[in-house]
Amino acid sequence: MGTMLQAAGLSTGELPESWNLTHPERVTAIHRRYVEAGSRVLYTNTFGANRRKSKGCGYTPTELIAGAVRCARAAADGHEIKVALDIGPIGQLLEPLGDLSFGEAYDIFREMVVAGEEAGADLVVIETMSDLYEVKAAVLAAKENSRLPVWVTMTFEASGRTFLGTTVSSMALTLTGLGVDALGFNCSLGPKELLPLVRELRAWTPLPLILKPNAGLPDPATGAYHITPEDFAAELKEALPCGVHAFGGCCGTTPDFIRAVCKALADAVPVSATPAARHGICSSVSTAELNGVRVVGERINPTGKRRFQQALREHDLDYIVRQGIEQQDAGAEILDVNVGLPGIDEAALMRETVRALQAAVDLPLQIDSSSSAAIEAGLRAYNGKAIVNSVNGKREVLDAVLPLCKKYGAAVVGLCMDENGIPDSWQGRAVIARRILNAALSCGIPKEDVVIDCLTLTVSAQQKQAFETLRAVRYVKEELGLHTTLGVSNISFGLPARETISASFLNQALYAGLDLPIINPNQAAMMDAVASFRALSGEDRDCAAYIRRFSRAPSAPASAAGPPHDMSIAEAVMRGLGGETAALTEKALTEMDELAVIDRLLIPALDLVGARYEKQEIFLPQLINAANAACEGFELIKKRIAARGGESITKGKIILATVQGDIHDIGKNIVKVVLENYGYTVLDLGRDVPPERVVETARREDVRLVGLSALMTTTVSSMAATILALRQSGHPCKIMVGGAVLTPEYAEEIGADYYAKDAKQSADIAKQVLG
Amino acid sequence: MEYRLDRIPREQTLHYLGWHGGKLPAEIEDSLSRCEALLLSAAKPRIVWKLFAYREDGSFAGTDYTPDGQDIRAFLRGCEQVVLLAATLGIETEALIRRAQTRDMGEAVMLDAAGSAAIEALCDSFCAELGKELSPCCLTERYSPGYGDYPLSEQRAIFRLLDVSRRIGVSLSDSGLMIPQKSVTALIGVSKRPIPKQRTGCEVCQLRGSCAFRKEGKHCGKT
Question: Would the CB atoms of A221 and B51 count as touching at under 8 Å?
């Protein structure tokens, strides 16, 4: 449409959609050419008719869309043609990599969809997307605010990923789950290059497919396309057996291309839908296919973990995220996420945790909660197709949670228990498993998305139950044909050598048909058992992964032998040796209390590092490595204090924020590491932070020192606005500022109390203000 | 046209990190090597560019675009053509650097600096090829929004002219920042006659008052 409009006289600076109102006859004329060529679906001229892209054009999105539908309708009149509301990308990247919130994206799409349905569009087409999260916002907006069918096409590179890394399987699983009516590709490449991707897509979804490629590959220098309409049509036709139901053209194509396609496909019969051959769950960039054993990491769970509970109460998302990263590194393929703790807002925390984790790990998540509000919050925030853990055989639980799984397209774990507790016999559990399966099916959740947990009971308390559980697993797997999961480590509570018996139980459960063991992937014995099982079952072809795992030279753990006798904490910190610092801290704690270790050993060590940094004897990476090493010492102390239920030690609270409009926050993050390791509690508000949020947090938490950072000349003004807002609020606090474009003079001019030229100086300021 | 990123110049990374010279500790050398390898395997370098005729009045032929500012006019004086360029390392490097900030801040700053060195190296490799392609014409250095009085807000026009978001997957925030951050937009003048060395150093830079390099009596390397 854009190219056609330019040919019709649209100038480069003009918003194409404004022509729906200023030159409707020309827009309709273009539509007519496609009608004459044989088009059966007309996309309205609304690709960029969103609030952001159309700002300043003189019309609202609603006006642009109403005009666009009128133009298309005028051309479609008298023909059997559908008018599709065309929705393109907002043009701004969503969080976490960008600065547009999911909620705002949803709202932008909602406005378009409501306008489109009111104007009389027959369906919604979301196209040219490269961000799966943005698509999710658009699909939810369409389904929650209209009754129109929804089609989605995304734009891929030949590598099989979008610019944002979304894979074909992730797109298929997520969008099939969200209940779109058809999906496929547009733009990207030519039909020939897209064919392998179409085949891949076919394997992962039973839905009708859409294919709307470019006219081949453009010349890189001129941008011109060279393929003929006939060749295009011939290449396109090859996708017919893959179940493509809708064909079209994107960049470089013209009505002649559509005419050629209509001719080539005149006698074609669409291939009807077949069930998907492959199943799984996914994040936007990685898929855990459910065709073998997939390890579910259990560590993000506060049960029985004081330090984790403390992190939840203190809203220390970084701590939680590190648990996720550690498990991913250890070989977990799915992460269970449980943030339930009495007295906290679990729904809000689930939403934030899911977002924070997805910004840092690739793995698909399992949303684990007994609160349906928390489950919905997690599912809505999630980018991909999740698992919900869990429902059970109770009617009210099934009624509350299954519709959420259906709506957001999640797989679901069903526990074999109900009002009467856990049945003692495997047969009793099988009955409940069947009940859960039937409830899921009648809710529209496919069988492949049902995972049954036959429940592991503690063998030291209920010895007969271990084998009942294994028999139930076998039945559910073989007779019901469902996926199975178990929280494996429960088996060994109260016994010595827990890993030994847990690993043994795991071996037998895997043999009985366990697909999704929920375990601690940091325990080598458990992961060894999984690796062995995969080799024995044949899942690990040629035992390649097993050989890789065990042929690595065994490396002695760094601190196993302990640090050399003569090393001081100061030296360990200076050299950035975390393990040694922790070991030396532990040793020091046998001689003095926690506070003394911090004040007399760790802080002076950091001071020494800071002084050398100022004298330019060491440079930034060394300063940070030293701070990180000291962190290992602090973490040890935190754990000890948390374990005995004591108050955590802090030298005071400091707010850090990268100001509104700015997303360069690496400098702020460096300052954070250093301040935390001086013992301050940093309330990190992140980047692109509005002034109100800084003020609100400062007052609520009674914070006496606020640090603001900005990197760009364009965003220093919002730093000034934040300082002004803080001053006007009357909240007594000192403000320090930093960032590449700031100077001491400018800091003073905008009303800051301190200018910090680097992280070291921010620690000096903190000491001066907070002690 | 060919462009490659097969090596990240170590000296440039160290320069961005503020290394003062001398013997680098072995553990830092190791970390840097690791970071460079991580970046090179994550990077998906992409470039989109276009050649425009450059008119006497400072506008690009066939468009409604005239770059804003005296300095860019002076920079392109005498050029008959101009290449508009956008390059990126791809979103994977952005994610790599962001994630490192949770995992290990020390590694994150090294990745960040090496990423800056890498995108410049990529542009250098492209420009070397461009020079051969357009030979015997001469090329100027690269000139980007934010240099001199050529404002950052000009990014919008460059994005529109090159269709940058759609072609190479870079997006522009409201305040004119590019994501992935390791991305570059630039103008390169093309002239039939040899071009005298331009003033692209500190004296024409907008950051000259606050630049961390200048505070230490150094420069960022863009001279």
Answer: yes
Flag whether B133 is in a domain: yes
Chains A, B: CB contacts under 8 A, how many?
A: 141
**pLDDT tens digit string along B123-152?**
999 999 999 999 899 999 999 998 888 888
- pLDDT of A528-569, one tens digit each? 999 999 999 999 999 999 999 998 755 544 444 555 667 899
From the list A160, A212, A163, the residue with the least C-alpha distance to A191 is: A212
Question: Is residue A47 located within the same domain as residue A163?
Answer: yes
Q: Whole-prediction pTM value?
A: 0.89
Q: B1, A221: Cβ pair inside 8 Å?
A: yes
CATH number of the structural domain spanning residue A135: 3.20.20.330
Domain of residue A312, CATH code? 3.20.20.20
Q: Is residue B5 part of a domain?
A: no
**Is the residue at A640 inside a domain?**
no
For B153-191, the three-class secondary structure string (H helix, E strand, C coil) is: HHHHHHHHHHCHHHHHCCEECCCCCEECCCEEEEEEEEE
Which ipTM score applies to this complex? Answer: 0.84
C-alpha–C-alpha distance, residues A658 and A715, integer Å: 10
Residues whose CB falls within 8 Å of the CB of residue A392, separated by 6 or more in sequence, listed in order = A398, A414, A415, A416, A417, A418, A432, A436
The reply to whether A699 falls in a domain is yes
A chain contacts of residue B175, beta-carbon cutoff 8 Å: 661-662, 712, 714-715
| C-alpha span between A276 and A294 (Å, rounded) | 20
Q: Between chains, do B1 and A742 touch, taking CB under 8 Å as contact? A: no
Contact B98 A96 (CB under 8 A): yes
Number of helices and strands (H, E) in chain B?
Answer: 8, 6
Rounded distance between C-alpha atoms, residue A649 and residue A679, angstroms: 8
What is the C-alpha to C-alpha distance for residues A446 and A650, in angstroms, rounded to an integer? 51
Domain count across chain B = 1
